[in-house]
What we know:
- This protein is of the alpha/beta class.
- The protein has helices at about 150-175, 185-200, and strands at about 1-5, 25-35, 45-50, 60, 70-75, 80-90, 100-105, 110-115, 120, 125-130, 180-185.
- Strand 3 (about 45-50) and strand 4 form a beta hairpin.
- It is elongated, with a radius of gyration of 21 Å.
- Mean pLDDT is about 80; it is low at about 1-10.
Amino acid sequence: NLIVVTVLLLSGCAMKFPVPDETNQTILIIPVETRQTLGHFVFTLDLSIKGSSGNEGIKHTVEPNPKMLFSYNTKLKPGKYKIAKMVMQAKPGFKLGGGAKKRPEKMKDKVEFELQKGKITIIDKMILFQQPQSKLGKPPQRGQNQQKKTDVEKHLEKIKRKKERKADQEAMKKQRVRQVQLVNLDESFKAKILEELKEVENIDQWKME
């Protein structure tokens, strides 16, 4: 299967789509919202996109990014498709819950769409990335009253922070926040995407919805 890595749309950055040709016949837009409350995300999301009429399937990778409104793909031929599977993939050096490197995500709803030649298609679902809320502030930086503390005080502070982190992790688990969800695309978020698309340099070469 062809592997296609997502291209991110960053606010304020000039963007240009490929020119419509035999290689780039369609543009698939996958809406993405990222709600980041902690540090960086330690995973990406692999989408398995299958053709319903025997078209070749692809793997499309989406990375959480608060500045990204959507991910797009230009390598699919015109036809009917569906998102068959979503799999969380841990980044190098990290693991998911339970020590796993990858984890399939449940899909309650079918995600089916049709791509047309020379046209931009926005699917009616959105990938929502989110993190739980932490009650801990940032640990003191080196130099912030650290030199005035004795070795014993520094050691006790380290033990205290460790206990606080453990308690905070347990509290965040109880929030039961799903890190990845596939939700319905609302009209207000779609309107934001359409506004961003207007800023694409060669958008007039493609048909919009």
